[in-house]
Amino acid sequence: MSKIARRKFIQLSAAAATGCLAISGRDALADDLPHVSESDGMAMAMKYTNDASTVDPASRTNPAAEQNCANCALIQGNDGDAWRPCQIFPGKAVNAKGWCSVWAPKA
Question: pLDDT tens digit string along 95-107?
């Protein structure tokens, strides 16, 4: 293998590695993420539900009838989206109308 071929190989390898990193580093969209299932082990531990209106406000740590994922400090993504990423469930999307026991008010 000559020096020119080796140099070209290194350049192409560097370009390929950069391309792989750029593609895998893009932000995940909520549409790309699987939805959290209420039967998921983590969801059950956090008392997650897809419909916050089914949870008795008196049973919550911070009782308030208007608690839902859409107004939680831990939700990410765009306001108005039905399913959004959440810091509690990495790699999954929660229902904006949902609720879990980790709910925290937005600052």
Answer: 999 999 999 988 8
Amino acid at 85: P
Supply 38's token pair.
């209420």
Which DSSP category does 69 fall into?
Answer: G
Give pLDDT tens digits for 37-91: 999 999 999 999 999 999 988 888 776 778 999 999 999 999 999 999 999 999 9
Q: By the 8 A CB rule, do 67 and 95 touch?
A: no
CB 53 within 8 A of CB 70: no
> Which residue, 81, 55, 58, 78, is CA-closest to 68?
55
Question: Per the structure, how many domains does the chain have?
Answer: 1
- CATH number of the domain within which 62 lies: 4.10.490.10
